[in-house]
Specification:
This protein is of the alpha+beta class and 226 residues long. Helix content is 46%, strand content 13%. The protein has six helices and five strands, in the order H-H-H-H-E-E-H-E-H-E-E.
């Protein structure tokens, strides 16, 4: 009578299947977590920089008592800082630039550091701001006046470097785009044709003007027409 051949017990196939299943579950959990973080980061940026959101986004969030108190304080603040007739006349030039917050009392305090050269100007931003403060606007006006004298036939190129201190690359790109458009709108309002102001977001900043600044920066360059 033939003897039965008994194979030794091998636990490895079952262990590999179990380990692979655990890894797949962990990867799926991490994917869902990253998607949620990215979504809420963009939503937070939209609220903080535009000051508004869609009705569908806010309809699902109940209005708490604290939120009502906060809204009431904002209304009182806006009424308190509303400029009178004399202040409106003095701020007439600032109203030409879209996005300028005229309700800020400390409007003389600059939030950017500016460096002016012969054919280019460097604007270093302080944190997350997109609009140019009043002092920077004056510096831009002074730079443009000098450019018109030194380079009678010229056009303007605008470069913006993305900030490195933001939560995601998407937010950094949106901030850089907003800054470039704000500078462009300001220059166009200073008697420049639309074709004479070029935004170069996709182009690399020239090496001679490259700087390293975490909050991002903008460059206004004068180019002579051929």
């Amino acid at each position: 009578m033939a003897k039965k051949h008994l194979e030794p017990f091998n636990p490895w196939p079952g262990f590999v299947d179990l380990f692979a299943s655990v890894i797949m579950v962990v990867l799926i959990f991490m994917l869902v977590l990253i998607v949620n973080i990215t979504y809420y980061a963009q939503f937070k940026y939209k609220i903080s920089y535009t000051g508004s959101s869609s009705v569908q986004e806010l309809s699902n969030e109940p209005i708490t008592t604290a939120a009502k108190i906060d809204m009431q304080k904002k209304k009182e603040y806006i009424l308190d800082v509303t400029p009178n007739k004399e202040e409106k006349d003095s701020q007439k030039d600032l109203q030409a630039v879209a996005g300028m917050d005229l309700t800020v009392k400390d409007s003389n305090l600059t939030r950017q550091e500016n460096s002016i050269y012969d054919d280019w100007m460097l604007i270093k931003y302080n944190n997350k701001e997109i609009i140019l403060d009043p002092q920077t606007m004056k510096d831009v006006d002074s730079f443009l006046k000098q450019a018109k004298i030194k380079f009678p036939n010229h056009y303007i190129s605008i470069f913006t470097a993305e900030p490195k201190n933001q939560a995601s690359a998407t937010i950094s790109k949106q901030i850089a785009l907003g800054r470039a458009l704000n500078i462009r709108n300001l220059i166009r309002s200073r008697e420049y044709k639309e074709s004479d102001v070029v935004v170069r977001l996709k182009d690399k900043i020239p090496n001679a003007q490259t700087v390293d600044y975490d909050a991002g920066y903008g460059i206004i360059m004068v180019n002579t027409k051929k």
